[in-house]
Amino acid sequence: MRVTSLVSLLALAAPLASAFTLSAPTNPTSGEVTEIHWTFKATDPATFDLFLMNSTQAFGLVAFLGTELETDLGQITTLLPALPAGDDYQLRAVNVENVDIVLAFSPVFAVAA
Ligand SMILES: *[C@@H]1O[C@H](CO)[C@@H](O)[C@H](O)[C@H]1NC(C)=O
């Protein structure tokens, strides 16, 4: 019981450490333009890198969607690369100097072909 609650706390700790939140894009389609939105607090880093991931893989990098994006923009419009249709996509915002420092994950979302 005690071990279980400790594990739950650790799992929660990473997302709570940052105020940054990343939304899933709305109806994203392979090879088409999509909008990506995020929210932030003044304490978040001024820039970040944005990755498109396959959420079922630990290191499932699919594409770089942006490098050194300005946090205070709050959104970008970007062209998605040609992608296989699937339900397992996820955005990941990371620290520009250390990609292992994750600012936020988006919810998992589907991309249409
Ligand atoms: C994500 O990875 C899994 C496991 O390798 C694979 O079966 C699936 O097709 C991948 N999804 C996409 C959208 O590439």
> What hetero molecules are in the model?
2-acetamido-2-deoxy-beta-D-glucopyranose
Architecture per CATH nomenclature, i.e. the level-2 architecture: Sandwich
- Under CATH at level 1, the class stands as Mainly Beta
CATH topology: the name is Immunoglobulin-like
Shape: globular
Low-confidence stretches: none
Report mean pLDDT, rounded to a whole number.
89
Cα Rg: 15 Å
Number of helices: 1
Q: Could you spell the SSE succession in H and E letters?
A: HEEEEEEEE
Pfam family, one: Kre9_KNH
Domain Yeast cell wall synthesis Kre9/Knh1-like N-terminal: 29-111
Protein name: Yeast cell wall synthesis Kre9/Knh1-like N-terminal domain-containing protein
Signal peptide: 1-19
Question: What does the model show?
Answer:
The protein is mainly beta and 113 residues long. It has one domain: Immunoglobulin-like, CATH 2.60.40.2840. The chain contains 1 helix and 8 strands. Strands 3, 4, 6, 7 and 8 form a 5-stranded antiparallel sheet that branches. The longest helix has 16 residues. It is globular. The N and C termini lie far apart (45 Å). The relative contact order is 0.26. 2-acetamido-2-deoxy-beta-D-glucopyranose binds next to strand 6. Keywords: Signal. Pfam families: Kre9_KNH.
